[in-house]
Amino acid sequence: MSIVTILVPALNEEQGLPATLACLDALDPPADEILLIDGGSEDATRKIATEGGLTVLLSPKRGRGAQINFGVLQASGDIICVLHADSLLPVDAVEEIRKAMDDTKLSLASFTPRIAGPSGTRWGSTVHNWLKTSYIPLLMRPRLFFKGVRLLFGDHAMFFRREQFLAVGGCDEDVVVMEEADLCIKLARFGHTRMIRRWVWTSDRRIVAWGRWRANWIYVKVGMMWAMGARKRLADHYPDIR
Length: 242
What we know:
By secondary structure, the chain is of the alpha/beta class.
């Protein structure tokens, strides 16, 4: 049976982390290993995670891609699930991960994101999140699209085989936004990518901070810039990078 490691890259996540810890504690079956990879938090993130029973490691370099790379190197699992610190997995996530990765033609998968907050689900942004997994590769990488590659993103709780991740060189640490989309392209050499039909609940905090219309415009703009090769300039157009 596959060993599953859940990897939580985090930076100053003391507000959202308690709910994520409760979610991880409720997993049935439990994950074999849970690692929180901290990027140098200046709040109580590490304290909360340690008291919650997680193994906490300090990444030598800040940035989600760098933290993921460091965490994968430390992980003992042969399947890695990257979970944002403000997202909640379904209770049977580990079973679903193992079941999905039994398909040897699948190189990378994720859960289906549902963006929500205290006022409920933000269906407009949620549906757009689903659609962009298809329309960006269809418009910008049609050859990969018709091979079954979809672009998955960080708030989808994506998962992959550790061996294949290392074989492609992991995340590009110079890409601080949409590093997961880059990973989809790299892992396409091993098979297709897809969302499975189980919710991962992700916080709407950015939409609250930016406003609904501005948030979706940022997502579209950054996605198109990424597709056209402007990877190093994405940080200038994406507030609150973690």
